[in-house]
Specification:
Radius of gyration: 15 Å
Structural class: mainly alpha
Number of helices: 4
Order of helices and strands: HHHH
Length: 101
């Protein structure tokens, strides 16, 4: 693993996608409880990675571990999205939060 800075902006983007996916699955009802649980776990993993990644510089144990955690979470998140979950669903879920705030 090269000594690159922790990609905090990428992880923040993934957290945003995870939040939108959470809202989308929550809106789909109780039939999606398993997906909601999985996306919650992924969001927690990404948040932990972000926290850990900001504790060390490039090449440190914290940075390297956080990057690996974020990569794994990204793979898990990717496995939850397919052609049957259009981006429109995620955008609608996220924009619905704007109207409430």
């Amino acid at each position: 693993m090269p000594d690159l800075p922790f990609p905090k902006e990428v992880v923040r983007d993934l957290i945003g996608i995870t939040r939108a996916l959470y809202v989308a699955f929550k809106g789909m009802g109780p039939a999606y409880a398993d997906q909601l649980s999985r996306v919650t776990q992924i969001g927690a993993k990404l948040s932990r990675a972000l926290e850990k990644g900001q504790k060390g510089g490039p090449g440190t144990w914290n940075s390297n571990t956080a990057t690996l955690m974020a990569e794994q979470a990204a793979k898990e998140l990717g496995s939850m999205v397919d052609a049957y979950l259009p981006a429109k669903v995620l955008i609608k879920a996220a924009s619905g939060r704007l109207k409430r705030g």
